[in-house]
Amino acid sequence: MKRFYTLALALIAFAFATAQQTVSLEGADETVRLWDNTTAKHSNHQTRNEQFSNKKKTSMRYTSSCELYIFKADAEKNTGVAIAICPGGGYMKLGFNVPTAKWFASNGITVALVKYRLPNGYKEVPLEDAMGALRYLRTRTDLGIDPAKVGISGNSAGGHLSAWTSNTMPDEEKPAFAILHYPAIDRNAPLYLNTFNTTGSLLGMDYAEAEAEAISAQNMVTAKTPPTLLMLCDDDKSVPPTSPLDYYEALIRHGVKASIHIFPKGGHSLKQSLEESRTLTLDWLDWLGLLKK
User: Fold this and answer.
1) Can you give the C-alpha Rg of the chain in angstroms?
2) Is 143 inside a domain boundary?
3) For the chain, what percent of residues have pLDDT higher than 90?
4) How many domains does the chain have?
5) What are the pLDDT digits (tens) for 276-290?
6) Which residue has the higher pLDDT, 9 or 68?
7) Cα 248 from Cα 218, distance rounded (Å)
8) HSE toward the beta carbon, residue 182, CA cutoff 13 A
9) Domain containing 38: what range?
10) Cα gap 139→117, rounded to integer Å
11) Strand ranges inside the chain, DSSP E
12) H helix or E strand, kind and range, residue 24
């Protein structure tokens, strides 16, 4: 009897640990849950409840489920293009840019802000979620999405995840394009080995140098890497503009369509170059022939 009681308590504790409370983002037209740690192929083994980490409720931590916050393209301007946007946050939190999602939607581009599960030392988890987001968007033809026009975008750590995803997916499933804002590409760079050790958040604190080298996106580029746009700022103190240059060089060396813009001001957000960056983004997508209906 005592053994049965102990077992029952253990099962209750397990159920509590695997049923964390999760949070959603206000302002989206639709929220779609892909999976959580109990239903996905991989788990980040996060047992804390998800929570917002700022008063505006646009930044989350301890994520244990993958959800897509969908912003539908303006029906009259719908180009068929869709973008899965992976937020940054050093692989320790997620910072969602709702104004940018709404701006894309107003220009006929459907957006899914990806609430990916933070790795917590399990690198396969955010990659699984980013891939799942792309695959899901291709199924939403009811939103006017053209499956051949689905791309990926991200900033900072989300830029690394976007580059990683665009190189790792099977060739027939690779995104149509990638837009990377100040991406943290080289995971062996000293700036990611600071007090916070963002690479450690991805790989676990006892990772080997070779592991970080293997997930540094400049080492992944092939002729099959999708067209890529990089945007950086001279005054970025978190990801210096020189950091992603090896990635751009690799793209050019492999014959990939690639463009890079380094703005004089904008810091780690493009804030002071926002309008110019948005105009250049639309021009680049048009150059690729994706905005034609």
Assistant:
1) 19
2) yes
3) 70
4) 1
5) 999 999 999 999 999
6) 68
7) 8
8) 25
9) 2-287
10) 22
11) 30-36, 51-52, 59-61, 65-71, 82-86, 94-95, 110-115, 150-155, 178-181, 228-233, 258-263
12) none
Going 239 to 202 to 118 to 53, the CA torsion angle's sign is negative
**HSE on the CB side for 13, CA within 13 Å?**
6
Rounded Cα distance, 233 and 189, in Å: 18
Examine residue 123 and state whether it is found in any structural domain, yes or no. Answer: yes
293 inside domain: no
How far is it, in rounded angstroms, from Cα 203 to Cα 197?
10
Expressed in percent and rounded to 5, the helix, strand and coil fractions of the chain are 35, 20, 45
* CA angle centred on 37, ends 131 and 130, rounded to 5°: 15
What tokens were used for 253?
Answer: 């060396």
The string of pLDDT tens digits covering residues 241-273 is: 888 899 999 999 999 999 999 999 888 888 888
**DSSP state at residue 73:** P
Instruction: Name 132's bridge partners.
Output: none
pLDDT of res. 195: 44
Residue 292 lies in a domain: no
Amino acid, res. 29: D
Distances (CA, A) of 220 to 55, 92, 230, 241: 38, 24, 16, 20
Token pair for 30 = 């639709």
Give the model's confidence band at 193: pLDDT under 50 very low, under 70 low, under 90 confident, else very high: low
Tens of pLDDT, residues 239-249: 888 888 999 99
Residues 96-132: tens digit of each pLDDT: 999 999 999 999 999 999 999 999 999 999 999 999 9
Q: Report the CATH number at residue 201.
A: 3.40.50.1820
pLDDT of 15 over the 70 cut: no
Quick: pLDDT tens for 59-82.
999 999 999 999 999 999 999 999
CA separation for the pair 190, 198 (Å, rounded) = 11
